[in-house]
Amino acid sequence: MSLYLAAEDLSMFGRDPWWLVVVKAVFCFAFLMLTVLFSIVWERKVVAWMQLRVGPNRHGPWGMLQSLADGVKLMLKEDLIVKRADKVVYVLAPVVAAIPAFMAIAVIPFGPAGNEISIFGQRTTMQLTDLPIAMLYILAVASIGIYGIVLAGWSSGSTYPLLGGLRSCAQMISYEIAMGAAFASVFLYSGSMSTSTIVEQQQDRWYILLLPVSFILYIVTMVGETNRAPFDMPESEGDLVGGFNTEYSSIKFALFMLAEYVNMVTVSAVATTLFLGGWRAPWPVSTFWEGANHGWWPMLWFVVKVQLLLFFFIWLRGTLPRVRYDQLMKLGWKVLIPVSVTWLMLVATVRTLRNENYDFADIALYVGGGVLALLLLSFVADMFRDRGKDEQAPAEPAGFDPMAGGFPVPPLPGQELPPVPRRASRRERELIVSGGPDTQSDGSLDGKEASDG
User: Fold this and answer.
1) Which residues lie closer than 8 Å to 259 by C-beta, 6 or more apart?
2) Which stretches does the entry tag as region Disordered (predicted)?
3) pLDDT band per the 50, 70, 90 thresholds, residue 397
4) pLDDT by residue (tens digit) across 258-307?
5) Separation CA 91–CA 154 (nearest Å)
6) Least C-beta-crowded within 10 Å: which of 121, 171, 220, 244?
7) Is 338 helix (H, G, I), strand (E, B) or coil?
8) In angstroms, what CA-CA distances link 85 with 146, 160, 161, 254?
9) Backbone angles phi, psi at 109, to 5 degrees
10) DSSP 8-state assignment for residue 117
11) What is the pLDDT of residues 429-446, one digit of tens each?
12) Helices marked H in 356-444 — which ranges?
């Protein structure tokens, strides 16, 4: 397999009549909306189960219509526009955040491209469309949605929404780089950026087995991209009230909530397509059932995989606490980006050696030798660095005044708070008032020396 992009056969796309394109587009929209409605109820049910609560149980059978009731309630609420807001941008921001979330599903395959199905007597593929650069299209669309959050924070005319929007922008930049590197590893192995071709290349083995580091990197980055716990810093209610959507209400607030859950479905669909075999049936089923990947069955396997990833989102929210903002940025810049770039270079090296017809043993020898050399150099560098620190004299800790800025602030690393004088006990205060011997807690002389003076 070459490192260059393979010549994809996308001739089966673009031949549908206009009414069939509309039907497939409506199906993609309905699939996202129904999945979001189910995911909201499922999240509240699962988190309630984890916390030993009942969860929604009033609207519909087993509370399954709770998300629909929440949507109706939000639309019937009073729609407020704050006085200091930039009204045009304030109204358009939720739309800008919601529309790109729906666009990425257009290039996700729900079934094999060669297995056409019949819709109203017309043969068509189980995918709206495909592009030679479909994955770049997904990255571009995902980057547009961040503008809605940033503009919502800025146009509100309030401090806390602005901070939430800026946090989201910085978080997106930090995690988008590692996500792109994880995608690049898949491009190198599949030789294509087309989503249908990437799924076809996973016929023998899914990429979660061939590229496990890329899968882990993408899982972490997709949680950061969707602003979900434990990376939900843009809407941290502990210090930002509600984040970028603090000043929003009614249907505009519902659009932000809808965009978050649609993004969850979209990134789960992308992870399924790139690493979990897409619409392919899992290994035990595909071995003893030849028709598992034909007809409408591929859509079932695709939906099951997406729901499992959505359950992973819910599991994280009910398990992990929110991280600090400095921990969030440190993970993105100091861990994910170096690991993703190093892994990308390793994958490129292996693919190049495979294209040169090297044996697997030789490839393992070369790659293992390179990794050991890097570990040895890192160990030597750390040893000399620690020796230099030991030779340096310990610097005196800088003086710290917690009230220097006019209000109390916590000390930075290396700074210490001044000692707090010990408050005299009740017995000591009674002795002082009665003229008895004083204590030496404050460094003063005892009663006898004081009387001699």
Assistant:
1) 94, 97, 98, 101, 145, 148
2) 390-453
3) low
4) 998 999 999 999 999 999 999 999 888 877 887 788 888 899 999 999 99
5) 12
6) 121
7) helix
8) 19, 13, 11, 19
9) -80, 130
10) E
11) 666 556 555 444 444 444
12) 360-391, 426-434
For residue 162 the two structure tokens come to: 């602005």
Q: Which residue has the tokens 């939906």?
A: 303
Give the helix/strand (H/E) hosting 43. Answer: helix 18-50
Contact 182, 221 (CB under 8 A): yes
Return d(Cα 130, Cα 273) in angstroms, integer: 13
Tokens standing for 52?
């030993």
DSSP state, 58?
S
**What is the DSSP pairing of strand 122-124 with strand 117-119?**
antiparallel
Query: What are the φ and ψ backbone dihedral angles of 146, each rounded to 5 degrees?
Result: -70, -25
Alpha carbons 166 and 244: distance in angstroms, whole number: 9
Assigned token pair, 161: 């929404």
Cα angle, residue 451 at apex, residues 450 and 453 outer, rounded to 5°: 65
- Helices and strands: H and E segment counts in the chain: 17, 2
303: nearest Cα among 262, 270, 269? 269
Q: Cis link prior to 230 (omega < 30° from 0)?
A: yes
* Residue 436 DSSP label: -
Concatenated DSSP letters for 103-139?
Answer: HGGGG--SS-TTS-EEETTEEE-SSS---TTHHHHHH
Intra-chain end-to-end CA distance of the chain, in Å? 97
Rounded to whole angstroms, the Cα distance separating 397 from 390 reads 17
Q: Which residues, in sequence order, are CB contacts of 174 under 8 Å at separation 6+?
A: 224, 328, 329, 332, 333, 336, 337
* 64 neighbors 41 (Cβ within 8 angstroms): yes
DSSP code of 5?
A: P
For residue 453, name the pLDDT band (cuts at 50, 70, 90). Answer: very low
